[in-house]
Each structure stands twice: as C-alpha cells, then as structure tokens.
Design goal:
Helix content: 10-25%
Structural class: alpha/beta
Number of strands: 17
Order of helices and strands: EEEHEEEHEEEHHEHEHEHEEHEHEHE
Oligomer: single chain
Length: about 350
C-alpha cells in the first residue's frame, strides 16, 4: 500500500510552487517513515525548481534539509524507533558497492547517488519527492540521528549548508593551528564561519560589503577583509591554509589565490558551472597551491557533523516561514534577503 501525501511542487520551470498531492511507498523492511516537522530552503531547491541546471523532471517537490519524527519502521530496522528525532539530507540511497560508497562517501557514488528529490528510486524507478511535504520514507542507512538538545529548527540547514562546509573542513584537516578564510556570508558562508571556529581555526571572512563586520564576528570570524580593497588583500598575502568559497554565482577567483599559504587550497562549494575570467596559474605553480571542489558529505561525516554541533551547540541562523510563503522566500533568497537560511514549519501545510 502507498500513502497519500500533501506537499508543494513546481509543475514547470515558470510555475510558482503550489499544493500537490502524491504518493509515498509503503515502508520496505529497511525503511524509516518520517513525519516532517521542518525543512530548510536551499539555493539548490530554487535552481532545480527553475531548471537552472537543466534536466529537472516535473512535477518536482524540493527540500533536502529535513527534520522529522519517526512514525514507522520496517521489520529489519534496529537503529531507530517510533518518536525518534531524525534528519534526512541530500541523498536517500546509493549503490552501496563502489569504492566511494565503501569509503562512506556516498555523494560521489560511481553510479550516482539517489538524491532526495528529482531523482529515481533505485528499486522501482519511481520519482523521489523532497521535504516540502508531510511525510517521507527513506532507507535507514540514509537517516540521521539528531542529538538531544539541538534546536530542530536551526538544525535543518545542517543537513545541506552545514555538511557542505563541514566536509572540506574535515578533508583538509582543519584544527587549532589552521588559518581558514571564507568567501561570502550567506547560508553556506555563515555555517563555514561557525564550524571552522568550532574546530579551533583562526577564521577570516572575505566580503565585498563593509557592513557585515559585526555579524561576521558574532558568527565566529576573527578578521574581516574587504576583498575589493587592494591594500587589505595585500596584507593577507600567503596566509591561508584553506579558503572555502561559498559564492553561488560566477566570480573571479584570481584575487584570492595569492592569499593562500604554501600548499594551500581554495575549495569551491557554492558554484556549479564555468568560471570567468581565466584562472592565472602563476600563484598556483609558485606556491604548490590548489583549486578544488567539494560536494555535500557522506552519511558518516554528516552524522559526525551533527554530533559535533550537538556538543558545541551550533545551529544555523534561521527565519521560520510557512509553506504558503515559499515563493516569496525564493524571491527574497535571490536578493540575499535572509539571515541566513529559511526554514519551513511544515505544520503550516495544515493551514
């Protein structure tokens, strides 16, 4: 048997999101059924709804920053019980047998991970629908435990914005002796500041906007550098072990490369596509520096991040909205008019 579910969907690239009824599968033996309490709003939701990256299958129900309560478990599930607070992030399955999956890096699955929305179930090929909805059914391997005491509204964006910045921080072994810079202060950038500071790094924000200094310091920045000020950029030349670039639009990387230390890395987490102008390789060659990319994180490191946030009391700064306001929120998000992440109270679906 399937379950009738109410959600919000885009039916084309030009349509606003609107109420949409669809079905969820009956839980399989290893599935967890979840009542969705809160769902974060990610730039990826907007890009997918508007088909900015191409290939969106409509209707699409976005949402991959899901916090909920367990309302059912399959016969083989042992890690979860009714009433548990749980999360679901960007993936709901992967092949489970390739080399990346074997390393707990399901996001790089060689057969492609099954994403929480706008994907296809690996077993029956039905479309996956996301968290802008009442309920979801997910394999227990892709369900995450939410630590006690962690505010669940602020925890929702950890499932994408949090893990997107945590994964490179861990991969490049950021700790108390590290010097980390963050480019951009938005949904991703504010989480990068909080997490890098939580790991003990000396943290700098690169920004084009002088008015962000007070907020940046509150979020964990030790230093603020105005990236359009040549003197300030020259003053931090050769300083940073890691730069996390969270900017979601095409932009010039060249001003940041000289600020990397020997063997330093600039890692892109916010932008997909071709970058212009051309990258100048001189700073890279002269300092064995790197430009890299990183995609969300695996299930194990996502749980590690959630546990760390539980210990440190780290959550996202959020503005809670009703689902009926999602289209207005998309418009505001395009103008960066949110500090720093929208989260939908899914109880509003009943209004």
């Amino acid at each position: 048997m399937t379950t009738d579910v109410l959600g919000y969907a885009a039916k084309s690239a030009t349509d606003d999101l609107a109420p949409y009824r669809f079905t969820r599968r009956e839980p399989r033996a290893n599935d967890v059924a979840i009542e969705i309490l809160y769902c974060g709003v990610c730039h990826s939701d907007l890009h997918t709804a508007r088909n900015d990256w191409g290939g969106t299958t409509y209707p699409v129900v976005p949402g991959h920053e899901i916090i909920g309560r367990v309302i059912g478990v399959g016969a083989e599930v042992t890690r979860f019980k009714l009433g548990d607070r749980v999360g679901v992030g960007c993936m709901v399955d992967s092949c489970q047998r390739c080399a990346p999956c074997g390393q707990g890096l399901e996001q790089y699955c060689e057969e492609s991970a099954t994403f929480t929305y706008d994907g296809k179930d690996r077993q029956d090929q039905t479309p996956t629908f996301g968290g802008y909805s009442e309920k979801i059914v997910v394999s227990d391997k892709f369900v995450l435990k939410i630590p006690d005491g962690l505010d669940i509204k602020g925890a929702a964006p950890l499932l994408c914005a949090g893990i997107t910045t945590w994964s490179p921080l861990r991969h490049w072994q950021v700790g108390e002796d590290s010097r980390v810079a963050v480019v951009g202060l938005g949904g991703l950038g504010h989480m990068a500041l909080k997490l890098a500071k939580g790991l003990g790094a000396e943290v700098t924000l690169f920004t084009r906007s002088p008015g962000k200094e007070e907020d940046a310091r509150r979020l964990g920045a030790d230093h603020i550098v105005i990236s359009t000020d040549d003197a300030q950029m020259e003053a931090v030349k050769g300083q940073f072990d890691l730069i996390i670039d969270t900017v979601p639009i095409e932009h010039d990387l060249n001003p940041y490369l000289p600020t990397l230390a020997l063997d330093g890395t600039l890692v892109l987490v916010g932008f997909l596509g071709n970058l212009m102008p051309t990258l100048n390789t001189v700073p890279l060659i002269m300092g064995r520096k790197s430009v890299a990319g990183s995609l969300i994180g695996g299930i194990a490191e996502t749980q590690e991040m959630l546990d760390f946030c539980g210990e440190q009391g780290i959550t996202s700064d959020v503005e809670v909205i009703k689902i009926q306001d999602i289209n207005e929120a998309y418009g505001r998000m395009q103008k960066s008019d949110v500090k720093y992440r929208f989260v939908i109270d899914m109880a509003s679906l009943k209004d």
